[in-house]
Write a structure and sequence with these properties.
Blueprint: H1 32-43, E1 46-48, E2 57-59, H2 62-68, E3 74-76, H3 80-89, H4 101-110, H5 116-138, E4 146-147, H6 148-165, H7 179-193, H8 199-203, H9 206-233, H10 243-249, H11 261-292, H12 294-308, H13 318-321, H14 325-337, E5 343-348, E6 352-354, E7 358-360, E8 366-369, H15 370-373, H16 377-380, H17 394-399, H18 418-435, E9 436-439, E10 448-450, E11 454-456, E12 460-465, E13 496-502, H19 507-521, E14 525-530, E15 543-549, H20 560-568, E16 579-586, H21 596-607, E17 611-612, E18 617-620, H22 625-643, H23 651-654, H24 674-678, E19 681-690, E20 704-710, E21 722-726, H25 731-740, E22 748-750, E23 766-768, H26 769-775, H27 785-793, H28 798-808, H29 812-823, H30 829-835, H31 843-849, E24 856-859, E25 870-876, E26 879-881, E27 888-890, H32 892-899, E28 905-911, E29 927-930, H33 937-951, E30 959-965, H34 975-983, E31 988-993, H35 1004-1010, H36 1012-1020, E32 1024-1030, H37 1034-1050, H38 1054-1066, E33 1070-1075
Parallel strand pairs: 2-8, 13-14, 13-15, 15-16, 16-17, 16-18, 29-30, 29-32, 30-31, 32-33
Antiparallel strand pairs: 1-2, 3-5, 4-12, 5-8, 6-7, 9-12, 10-11, 19-20, 19-28, 20-25, 21-24, 21-28, 22-23, 26-27
Helix pairs in contact: 3-7, 5-6, 5-18, 6-11, 7-9, 9-11, 11-14, 11-18, 12-14, 12-18, 25-26, 27-28, 28-29, 35-37, 37-38
Enzyme class: oxidoreductase
InterPro entries: Bifunctional_P450_P450_red, CysJ-like_FAD-binding, Cyt_P450, Cyt_P450_CS, Cyt_P450_sf, FAD-bd_FR_type, Flavdoxin-like, Flavodoxin/NO_synth
Family: In the N-terminal section; belongs to the cytochrome P450 family.
């Protein structure tokens, strides 16, 4: 049924329809794209077809396509052919709907793997396969001709197989195509042929349906085997990563989820099809056009000789390929005339009108006919039907409007691998032209073959080795850009430097991190964040450096809100006082949107009052990106120095430090799977020493460790932050559990899920029992009543079953019994299982019941002002008789850390506590610090920071430190340091010894009372109170002491004193950092 017009609109043109079949036979079933092109020439830039079951609108005019490219109004539509392909493509990137969770998840995980940086990583593998093609053609006899689409298919299939999945199809070593190609071609053909069948006719095609399913089963089996073998084999050698690595290991930052194996299968099939079928067609069309245009071929030869040189034994470099500009123009022009994916499909979110007169109802299927869009004379000129690479000269591209060139689709649903495809095609075309003359021995006339994609049908040619070249050596010398020496760290001046990034592919984020690291070395106080985090709150202190890319002319995902704020909320003068500069990342291959967002941000920031402190820089990924960045970067620090009247100490830049630092590594334990989810990084242990006295007349039976860690370059912290440690369970606990379930700890097992519930346990991959119990689960958590109920189900022995029932019931008696026998005795599941040996709980259920292993957090006990490259933590080792009666209890993380030797590696991350438990902005503000035992940790950092400020000549305020331990000769940790702080006037120390005298226990609250007048005087001067340590008894006792002090000094009621304490807390002048004992 054709579209019903609304008032003020006009009918969409449509060819006459026949009864029952509509326009089904107006378009050639084997080559429907050619038929639709003829209809577009006849009916104009928009027309509608009637076919059984649907009535698509076909659009090809630029002005209408420009509207349809607005992603706020239109989204990708799964057309009938794509719905057929979905039977084997599933919810892979190409055939998923935008709203499906797996599309966004996979898009987020995979997008960085098509960045400029990733392309450099793929280049050697592309070169590997390209050399195989060159070798085959070099060995041909003089009378041998070449099946061009066939060889291009072999090339591109092998390239995506190796780059994507470390799999060699070895197509050049076969007479026939790989069976995957045969299955794929039949499946794509069936997906298209079904469109021409009437519903009844299609139901009768039983044999075709059976073959279709066999082909799908074959592709699924091959890909599933590829996934399975990778899991069994483990990571690639030398830390190499490919697409499959990222699909198996990648975590979506938005959801924290991974891709499941079924979706990975669909993604691999998608890449294998889309990653080779379209690029092989592009190369075939390009070679055809070169044969038919000798003037273009001659110019291409000249460029290849100039850039690559005449010697084919000297392989091209990544930088050289990016200099083949005219070859790139040839490829783009071939894609213009014959885009190998010739259509894409959209639908409107709501009823809408396009072109000011054509009504489109909500969810209407619209086909964008790309070959005719690319022949629109209003954009491409009178020679729109002719092959002319000058359509893609830099000048022509800059003049061309956005949305006129769409060979890769539109917006966020555009082809994710377009940069991969263009790099591969440019490399191969350059190598072919360097080596061969192309011979059109059959005077081939172009015939189009359409499956889902387009390619020349029956295209054959000959080649012979080139004997003459335009030049005898490459004229274009490609040099790797000189990497500036990383400045040595100089004296901190602490000028704020905020580096913001907008990045989907990771390039802009990498540059931002690089700038921030250099900024720290130059003495700036640096921070790095996504642009969205600072929408509406750009700082006026210091400088702001913005590094951002465009994504199809739109903001990257982490810059959307920032751009919306500039568009909708920012106003004149709002950014007065902000000083900024911008560096833009882009690719001139997409000239219409090149640098769109960087330029927009640069202009908007200035328009709303910010001052540009340094010119905007532009990097072009299709050219010498690194060189362009370095050229801009050289002047950045000089501009910052002039702006803030700083001496940037350029000598420190010229004194280049060694490029490599060699470190001999011990046998480092591989990180557990929670490392990535917390952003933990490897940190080397620089020191691990005991703080308690272990000799003399009163040796300590307990242990507190001082642990010093080297921080990775990108990690920074502030005094008061916490350090999260990813630990492993203790060897004894692991072997205890394994023994109970009669498992060999060294045995490998594989777990398979039986339903769709999420799990933190690795499934469908081999893993040692030992590693599973060490890295994935909490073995010592107290057993819960619900867990005990599960144990009842697996206990047949009546006496033991009755006891478990009594512990797990819902009545008050059971609750009291559980509390006394399990909770207070801290009995774990393994404790209970050993107590009730008749329980036959399976190991699989046991694993399901355990919580994922958690990071443990420790207050950092140092200040970055003393040394930003390292930090310390102060760890009380938890060790003693188990309350459960099951031998010795060892705290998981503290004992893990205790075992670490100097040079070992732990995985850790800095966590901002998100509290006000930090030093006041003014170093002159008085402090009152209360911290017994390891509660001293943050105060050691505070005092180190004030000592560093004092060394800089700044005045620091007075402080009182109340520390508690058992005995002066046992556990007075950091005594010498604390005495030195006291000697320098940074603090006045009071130490409470709770075990020094048999008849008298003294605690920190007692020392507070002893010095109550000094405490009161500092409070009157605006002191901030910090309490760190045990939450169960110490912290409440200290709080009551302060309330009593106020009550005594002010002569008020307990209620009034309580109100004062609440006000002090609200004013951030009474701060606590406590934990349960």
């Amino acid at each position: 049924m054709h579209i019903v017009e609304k008032q003020g609109t006009v009918p969409i043109p449509r060819p006459p329809a026949k009864p029952f079949v509509g326009n089904l036979f107006d378009v050639d079933g084997e080559k429907p794209i050619l038929g639709m092109m003829e209809l577009a020439r006849k009916y104009g830039p928009i027309f509608q077809l009637e076919v059984p079951g649907r009535s698509p609108v076909i659009v090809s005019g630029f002005e209408l396509v420009d509207e349809l490219s607005d992603e706020k109004r239109f989204d990708k539509k799964l057309s009938a052919p794509l719905r057929n392909v979905r039977e084997f493509g599933g919810d892979g990137l190409f055939t998923a709907m935008t709203q499906e969770p797996n599309w966004q998840k996979a898009h987020n995980i995979l997008l960085p793997n098509f960045s400029q940086r990733a392309m450099q990583g793929y280049f050697p593998m592309m070169l590997d396969i390209a050399e195989q093609l060159m070798e085959k053609w070099e060995r041909l006899n003089a009378d041998d001709d070449i099946d061009v689409p066939g060889d291009m298919t072999r090339l591109t299939l092998d390239t995506i197989g190796l780059c994507g999945f470390d799999y060699r199809f070895n197509s050049f070593y076969r007479e026939d195509m790989h069976p995957f190609v045969d299955a794929m071609v039949r499946s794509l053909t069936e997906a298209m042929v079904r469109l021409r069948r009437l519903p009844l006719q299609d139901k009768l095609m039983v044999r075709e349906h059976q073959q279709f399913q066999r082909d799908i089963d074959f592709m699924n089996a091959m890909v599933d085997k590829l996934i399975r073998e990778r899991k069994e084999r483990g990571p690639l050698e030398n830390g190499k990563k490919d697409l499959l690595s990222y699909m198996l290991e990648g975590v979506d930052k938005q959801t924290g989820e991974r891709l499941d194996d079924i979706n990975i299968r669909y993604q691999i099939i998608t890449f294998l099809i889309a990653g080779h079928e379209t690029t092989s067609g592009l190369l075939s069309f390009a070679l055809y056009f070169l044969l038919k245009h000798p003037d273009v071929l001659a110019k291409a030869y000249e460029e290849v000789d100039r850039v690559l040189g005449p010697d084919p034994t000297v392989l091209p470099t990544f930088a050289q390929i990016n200099q083949l500009h005219y070859v790139s123009q040839i490829l783009k022009e071939a894609l213009r005339l014959w885009p190998t994916a010739p259509a894409f499909f959209v639908y409107p979110y709501e009823d809408t009108i396009i072109g000011g007169k054509y009504f489109l109802p909500k969810e209407k299927e619209i086909t964008i006919l790309i070959p005719m869009l690319h022949r629109d004379k209003s954009v491409w000129g009178e020679d729109a039907e002719s092959f002319n690479p000058e359509h893609f000269s830099r000048e022509a591209e800059q003049k061309r409007p956005a949305n006129a060139y769409k060979p890769f689709g539109n917006g966020q649903r555009a082809c994710i691998g377009r940069q991969f495809a263009m790099q591969e095609a440019t490399l191969v075309m350059g190598m072919l032209l360097q080596r061969f003359e192309l011979i059109d021995h059959l005077n081939y006339q172009l015939r189009i073959k359409q499956i889902l994609t387009l390619k020349p049908e029956g295209f054959r040619m000959k080649v012979r080795k080139r004997t003459t070249h335009a030049v005898q050596s490459p004229v274009v010398q490609i040099e790797q850009p000189r990497i500036e020496a990383r400045p040595k760290t100089i004296k901190q001046h602490n000028t704020p430097l905020l580096v913001l990034y907008g990045s989907n592919l990771g390039t802009a984020e990498d540059i931002a991190e690089h700038i921030a690291e250099d900024g720290t070395a130059y003495g700036f106080r640096t921070s790095v964040a996504g642009l969205d985090e600072y929408a509406g709150k750009l700082p006026r202190e210091g400088a702001v450096v913005v590094v951002t890319a465009s994504y199809n002319g739109t903001p990257p995902d982490n810059a959307v809100e920032f751009c919306r704020w500039l568009d909708e909320y920012a106003h004149d003068g709002e950014l007065d006082g902000v000083r900024y500069t911008v560096f833009g990342c882009g690719n001139r291959e997409w000239a219409a949107t090149f640098q769109a967002i960087p330029r927009k941000l640069d202009d908007a920031l200035e328009r709303y009052g910010a001052k540009r402190l340094y010119q905007r820089g532009e990097g072009d990924a299709s050219d010498d990106f690194d060189g362009q960045f370095q050229q801009w970067y050289q002047g950045l620090w000089k501009a910052l120095g002039e702006t803030f009247s700083l001496e940037m100490d350029e000598q420190s830049r010229s004194a280049q430090e060694p490029l490599f630092e060699v470190e001999v590594l011990s046998d480092v334990q591989a990180p557990n799977p929670f490392v990535a989810s917390f952003g933990a990084l490897p940190m080397r242990v620089l020191a691990n020493r005991e703080l308690h006295t272990k000799d003399g007349p009163t040796p300590s039976e307990r242990s507190t460790r001082h642990i010093e860690l080297a921080l990775p370059e990108q990690v920074s912290y502030r005094a008061g932050d916490h350090l999260g440690i990813i630990a492993r369970n203790h060897d004894a606990q692991i072997r205890r559990v394994a023994a109970h379930f009669q498992l060999d700890p060294e045995a490998k097992i594989r777990l398979r899920k039986t339903d769709t519930r999420k799990t933190h346990i690795p499934v469908d991959e081999p893993i040692r029992v030992y590693d599973l119990l060490a890295d994935y689960v909490e073995l010592q958590d107290v057993a819960t009543r619900s867990q005990l109920k599960r144990l009842v189900e697996y206990t047949e022995c009546p006496p033991e079953k009755m006891q478990l029932v009594a512990l797990s019931g819902d009545d008050e008696t059971s609750a009291a019994l559980y509390r006394s026998e399990v909770l207070l005795k801290r009995k774990s599941l393994i404790d209970v299982l050993e107590t009730y040996p008749a329980c036959t709980l399976p190991f699989s259920i046991y694993l399901e019941m355990l919580a994922p292993i958690r990071p443990r957090y420790y207050s950092i006990s140092s200040s970055p002002l003393q040394d930003p490259s390292r930090c310390t933590i102060t760890v009380g080792v938890v060790q003693g008789e188990a309350k459960s009666g099951s031998g010795e209890y060892l705290g998981v993380c503290s004992n893990y850390l205790k075992r670490m030797q100097e040079g070992d590696t732990v995985y850790a991350f800095v966590r901002d506590s998100k509290s006000a438990f930090r030093l006041p902005e003014s170093p002159e503000t008085p402090l009152i610090m209360v911290g017994p035992g390891t509660g001293l940790a943050p105060f050691r950092g505070f005092l180190q920071e004030r000592a560093a400020l004092q060394d800089e000549g700044k005045n620091v305020g007075p402080s009182l430190l109340f520390f508690g331990c058992r005995h002066a000769q046992q556990d007075f940790i950091y005594e010498d340091e604390l005495r030195e702080f006291e000697r320098r006037g940074l603090t006045s120390l009071s130490v409470a010894f709770s075990r020094e005298y048999p008849d008298k226990k003294v605690y920190v609250q007692d020392k507070l009372k002893e010095r109550k007048q000094e405490v009161w005087d500092l409070l009157q001067q605006g002191a901030v109170v910090y309490v760190c340590g045990d939450a169960n008894k110490m912290a409440p006792d200290v709080r009551r002491t302060f309330i009593a002090l106020y009550q005594e000094k002010m002569g008020v009621s307990a209620q009034a004193a309580e109100l004062w304490m609440q006000q002090l807390t609200e004013q951030k002048r009474y701060l606590v950092d406590v934990w349960g004992s």
